[in-house]
Amino acid sequence: MHIMFTSKLIQTPLGTLFAVADDHALYVLQFTDQPQPQRVLDRLTRTYDARIAEGSSALLAKLEEELAAYLAGRLQQFSIPCALWGPQFHMAAWQKLKEVPYAHTISYTQLAYALQNPRACRAAAQANAHNPFIIVVPCHRVIRHDGSLGGYNAGLERKKWLLAHERQHQN
After folding, report:
1. Of 67, 131, 163, 169, which one is least surrounded by beta carbons within 10 A?
2. Are the beta carbons of 26 and 81 closer than 8 angstroms?
3. How far apart are CA 19 and CA 10, in angstroms?
4. Tens of pLDDT along 141-160?
5. Which residues carry out catalysis?
6. Where are the domains of the chain?
7. Record: fold of 3-71
């Protein structure tokens, strides 16, 4: 039996996002121009023996509203539930990323320490790079220990924009 997911394209000032969800949770939120977005969808459909159909749902409508509010500076924390899926270490890292406060940053080393594995700095960076929930799980808030930005699959210009946006709209 196949699980059915719904997908939707969401236009934002930063580019087009594609979202995949069921009635209960978000499974993917990525920019359409991110490197190899099809690989994430292929992994999702294999993992859940799923099919994805374009459409809408109450959850995707709420996601669209929350993204618009976030990008307008009116929302600092998303309430959309994310169905964390993937390797155990990645899921643990993504859960920790959700705890990084709005307009704050942590280093990859700090993320590794938060995961109780101080030697796993590179693994933490890899988990960050494979985050399927762009913006909602704020991987843009992770920087290098020297304060430089490091990488960002959605592009460094977007990372700079998101960090500056959050600093501008923090309470």
Report:
1. 169
2. yes
3. 7
4. 999 989 889 888 899 999 99
5. 139
6. 3-71, 88-169
7. Double Stranded RNA Binding Domain (3.30.160)
